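Design review, sub-item: ligand-bound model
Attendees: FS, YL, KQ
YL presented the inputs for the fe (ii) ion complex:
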Amino acid sequence: MKPMQQDYSKYTDEDRLVWKTLFDRQMKNLETMASRQFIDALQEVEFRPDKIPDFKELDKLLGSKTGWAMEVVPNIIPQKDFFQTLDLKHFPATTWLRRMDQLDYLEEPDMFHDVFGHVPLLSNKAYTGFFKGMAELALKHLDSPLAIELLGRIYWFTIEFGLMNENGQKKVYGAGIISSAGETLYSLSDKPVHLSFDVRSVMQSTFRTDVFQEKYFVVDSFEVLYESLPEIEKVLKEELESARLLDKSAAM
Ligand SMILES: [Fe+2]
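KQ shared the predicted structure:
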């Protein structure tokens, strides 16, 4: 099948206005609330409010920094395809934008989430090292729904909803927060619980996808995430083993 491409000439005035409105609105929050690493990464990928990112340009920019590239997908793709794409250092992203009357709520991620939220940090070496390592781990365990669920929790509480400790202050970097003005403010408020990143605690934390998170895990750096990959593999093995033993005793 021919890979899908971004048709840059198809963007409308409404698309450009949506990108600019969300970008400007979110930057007001992010300047003080986002991790410095994310703000620096935005510069690296040259994102601007008055230009919808062009995937061809992103491929060149990311390619020279981390070797990653964009892969256009119509919507959410099956888990197996998702991890296989990441393993090739290709990031699956949509190219369509929500409408002006959907600025605050969408059921499926659009380009503002996929691209504004996820792509800047694909220029960061430690972050992409972690991302690729997670994909490799998932590919080893595709036949185990439980393993994928447990790895999915690590993914959820880092890549999508992670917070970072920066000079004693909590900052946001997870794409699900970065692309949501409401959750940016909420995640740093005193309403949710903030916990230090710990592989086993994350793996034992369930989550909901339809509400703001009740808890967020705070990590000290992307290097810490990258260096936690062997521990993620070890804890995963232990969790799978204890689930197997439980199953066995329940069957007796
Ligand atoms: Fe996402």
